Amino acid sequence: MNGACSSEQVGLFLAQLLPDQDDTAAEPSAQEAIDATLTMEQLIAAGGLRVEEEGTGAVVVPGCCAGLENWREWAEVLRGQSPWLGHDPTPAVEVLPDRLRIWQDSEAPGGAVRVAAGFIDLQAVALPGLLREVQADLIAFLERVERWGQQHELGDRGTALVQMLDAHFHISAPLDLPEA
Protein backbone atom coordinates (compact mmCIF):
# COMPACT_ATOMS: atom_id res chain seq x y z
CA MET A 1 0.00 0.00 0.00
CA ASN A 2 1.47 3.26 -1.15
CA GLY A 3 0.75 6.26 -3.33
CA ALA A 4 1.26 4.26 -6.52
CA CYS A 5 -1.80 2.06 -5.97
CA SER A 6 -4.28 2.05 -8.82
CA SER A 7 -7.87 3.15 -8.40
CA GLU A 8 -8.88 -0.52 -8.54
CA GLN A 9 -6.43 -1.41 -5.75
CA VAL A 10 -7.79 1.38 -3.55
CA GLY A 11 -11.32 0.13 -4.19
CA LEU A 12 -10.32 -3.46 -3.37
CA PHE A 13 -8.70 -2.37 -0.12
CA LEU A 14 -11.80 -0.43 0.89
CA ALA A 15 -14.11 -3.29 -0.12
CA GLN A 16 -12.24 -5.79 2.06
CA LEU A 17 -12.88 -3.56 5.10
CA LEU A 18 -16.59 -4.33 4.91
CA PRO A 19 -17.91 -7.37 6.76
CA ASP A 20 -18.75 -10.43 4.67
CA GLN A 21 -21.92 -9.88 2.74
CA ASP A 22 -24.80 -12.33 2.58
CA ASP A 23 -24.48 -14.18 -0.74
CA THR A 24 -28.11 -13.41 -1.51
CA ALA A 25 -27.75 -9.66 -0.89
CA ALA A 26 -27.15 -7.29 -3.76
CA GLU A 27 -23.62 -5.95 -3.98
CA PRO A 28 -23.54 -2.41 -2.53
CA SER A 29 -22.68 0.51 -4.77
CA ALA A 30 -19.43 2.36 -4.10
CA GLN A 31 -21.39 5.11 -2.37
CA GLU A 32 -23.23 2.59 -0.16
CA ALA A 33 -19.98 0.83 0.66
CA ILE A 34 -18.32 4.10 1.73
CA ASP A 35 -21.36 5.03 3.82
CA ALA A 36 -21.25 1.59 5.49
CA THR A 37 -17.51 1.93 6.15
CA LEU A 38 -18.02 5.34 7.76
CA THR A 39 -20.47 3.84 10.27
CA MET A 40 -18.15 1.02 11.37
CA GLU A 41 -16.77 1.19 14.91
CA GLN A 42 -13.58 -0.68 14.08
CA LEU A 43 -11.72 -1.20 10.83
CA ILE A 44 -9.70 -4.38 10.40
CA ALA A 45 -7.48 -5.10 7.41
CA ALA A 46 -6.32 -8.70 7.38
CA GLY A 47 -2.61 -9.08 6.86
CA GLY A 48 0.07 -6.90 8.27
CA LEU A 49 3.67 -6.20 7.46
CA ARG A 50 5.48 -8.65 5.25
CA VAL A 51 9.25 -8.99 5.56
CA GLU A 52 11.27 -9.82 2.46
CA GLU A 53 15.00 -10.39 2.40
CA GLU A 54 16.69 -8.63 -0.48
CA GLY A 55 18.87 -10.88 -2.56
CA THR A 56 17.48 -14.23 -1.43
CA GLY A 57 13.80 -13.44 -1.92
CA ALA A 58 12.99 -15.11 1.41
CA VAL A 59 9.65 -13.87 2.76
CA VAL A 60 7.94 -13.95 6.14
CA VAL A 61 4.24 -13.19 5.90
CA PRO A 62 1.80 -12.50 8.72
CA GLY A 63 -0.31 -15.40 9.91
CA CYS A 64 -4.06 -15.62 10.29
CA CYS A 65 -5.67 -12.93 12.44
CA ALA A 66 -2.80 -10.46 12.07
CA GLY A 67 -3.93 -7.09 10.80
CA LEU A 68 -2.57 -3.90 9.34
CA GLU A 69 -4.11 -2.03 12.26
CA ASN A 70 -1.30 -3.45 14.44
CA TRP A 71 1.64 -2.44 12.24
CA ARG A 72 3.06 -0.14 14.93
CA GLU A 73 3.58 -3.10 17.26
CA TRP A 74 6.79 -3.77 15.31
CA ALA A 75 8.35 -0.92 17.32
CA GLU A 76 8.01 -3.12 20.41
CA VAL A 77 10.73 -5.34 18.96
CA LEU A 78 13.15 -2.54 19.77
CA ARG A 79 12.08 -2.97 23.40
CA GLY A 80 12.70 -6.72 23.29
CA GLN A 81 9.14 -7.91 22.60
CA SER A 82 7.75 -9.74 19.58
CA PRO A 83 4.68 -8.14 17.99
CA TRP A 84 1.54 -10.17 17.32
CA LEU A 85 2.09 -11.57 13.83
CA GLY A 86 -0.79 -14.06 13.74
CA HIS A 87 -0.96 -17.83 13.76
CA ASP A 88 -1.23 -20.78 11.36
CA PRO A 89 1.64 -20.24 10.69
CA THR A 90 2.87 -18.50 13.84
CA PRO A 91 5.44 -15.90 12.79
CA ALA A 92 7.51 -14.37 15.57
CA VAL A 93 10.49 -12.13 16.12
CA GLU A 94 13.37 -13.40 18.21
CA VAL A 95 15.55 -10.62 19.61
CA LEU A 96 19.19 -11.69 19.47
CA PRO A 97 22.15 -9.64 20.75
CA ASP A 98 23.10 -8.28 17.32
CA ARG A 99 20.05 -8.87 15.15
CA LEU A 100 16.40 -9.76 14.88
CA ARG A 101 15.49 -13.24 13.70
CA ILE A 102 12.05 -13.20 12.09
CA TRP A 103 10.57 -16.70 12.00
CA GLN A 104 7.86 -17.69 9.54
CA ASP A 105 6.56 -20.38 11.90
CA SER A 106 7.82 -20.35 15.47
CA GLU A 107 5.78 -23.32 16.69
CA ALA A 108 5.59 -26.94 15.69
CA PRO A 109 2.42 -29.01 16.15
CA GLY A 110 1.70 -29.47 19.85
CA GLY A 111 3.26 -26.15 20.81
CA ALA A 112 6.89 -27.26 20.68
CA VAL A 113 9.36 -24.63 19.51
CA ARG A 114 10.34 -25.27 15.93
CA VAL A 115 14.05 -24.84 15.39
CA ALA A 116 14.33 -25.72 11.71
CA ALA A 117 11.65 -23.37 10.35
CA GLY A 118 12.51 -20.64 7.85
CA PHE A 119 13.63 -17.26 9.10
CA ILE A 120 15.09 -13.94 8.02
CA ASP A 121 17.80 -12.14 9.97
CA LEU A 122 17.57 -8.35 10.13
CA GLN A 123 19.98 -5.95 11.75
CA ALA A 124 18.07 -4.34 14.63
CA VAL A 125 19.44 -0.91 13.75
CA ALA A 126 17.62 -1.14 10.39
CA LEU A 127 14.14 -1.51 11.92
CA PRO A 128 13.45 2.16 12.78
CA GLY A 129 14.23 3.21 9.21
CA LEU A 130 12.06 0.42 7.81
CA LEU A 131 9.15 1.47 10.04
CA ARG A 132 9.54 5.06 8.87
CA GLU A 133 9.38 3.78 5.27
CA VAL A 134 6.21 1.85 6.07
CA GLN A 135 4.67 4.97 7.59
CA ALA A 136 5.66 7.05 4.54
CA ASP A 137 4.04 4.46 2.24
CA LEU A 138 0.87 4.45 4.33
CA ILE A 139 0.71 8.27 4.34
CA ALA A 140 1.11 8.22 0.55
CA PHE A 141 -1.68 5.64 0.42
CA LEU A 142 -3.95 7.99 2.40
CA GLU A 143 -3.21 10.69 -0.17
CA ARG A 144 -4.10 8.20 -2.91
CA VAL A 145 -7.39 7.39 -1.14
CA GLU A 146 -8.10 11.12 -0.99
CA ARG A 147 -7.62 11.40 -4.77
CA TRP A 148 -9.78 8.29 -5.22
CA GLY A 149 -12.52 9.98 -3.19
CA GLN A 150 -12.28 13.07 -5.38
CA GLN A 151 -12.50 10.94 -8.53
CA HIS A 152 -15.65 9.31 -7.15
CA GLU A 153 -17.06 12.68 -6.08
CA LEU A 154 -17.37 11.68 -2.43
CA GLY A 155 -16.92 15.24 -1.15
CA ASP A 156 -16.93 15.42 2.65
CA ARG A 157 -17.42 11.65 2.87
CA GLY A 158 -14.07 11.17 1.11
CA THR A 159 -12.38 13.44 3.64
CA ALA A 160 -14.09 11.56 6.48
CA LEU A 161 -12.96 8.26 4.98
CA VAL A 162 -9.31 9.37 4.89
CA GLN A 163 -9.54 10.62 8.48
CA MET A 164 -11.11 7.34 9.57
CA LEU A 165 -8.42 5.25 7.87
CA ASP A 166 -5.74 7.41 9.44
CA ALA A 167 -7.27 7.06 12.91
CA HIS A 168 -8.03 3.32 12.78
CA PHE A 169 -4.70 2.31 11.25
CA HIS A 170 -2.66 4.82 13.29
CA ILE A 171 -0.90 6.12 10.22
CA SER A 172 0.16 9.75 10.60
CA ALA A 173 0.78 9.98 14.35
CA PRO A 174 4.46 10.16 15.30
CA LEU A 175 6.19 6.80 15.62
CA ASP A 176 7.15 5.83 19.17
CA LEU A 177 10.64 4.51 18.58
CA PRO A 178 13.18 4.18 21.39
CA GLU A 179 16.21 6.42 21.18
CA ALA A 180 19.26 4.75 19.64
Describe the structure.
The structure is a single chain. The chain is an alpha+beta fold and 180 residues long. It has 2 domains: 73 residues, no CATH class; 72 residues, no CATH class. The chain contains 4 helices and 5 strands. The strands form 2 sheets. Strands 3-4-5 form a 3-stranded antiparallel sheet, with no helix packed on it.
Q: Write out the strand line-up for the largest beta sheet, numbering strands in chain order.
A: 3-4-5
Uncertain ranges: none
Radius of gyration: 18 Å
Strand percent estimate: 5-15%
Number of helices: 4
Major beta-sheet overview: 3 strands, antiparallel
Instruction: Report how far apart the termini are.
Output: 28 Å
Structural class: alpha+beta
Shape: globular
Number of domains: 2
* Pattern of helices and strands: HHEEEEEHH
Helix content: 25-40%
The overall strand count is 5
Keywords:
alpha+beta, 180 residues, 9% strand, two-stranded antiparallel sheet, 5 strands, globular, 32% helix, single chain
Question: What's the short version?
Answer:
This protein is an alpha+beta fold and 180 residues long.
Secondary structure layout plus pairing:
Elements: H1 7-17, H2 30-38, E1 51-52, E2 59-60, E3 92-95, E4 100-103, E5 119-122, H3 127-151, H4 156-168
Helix pairs in contact: 1-2, 2-4, 3-4
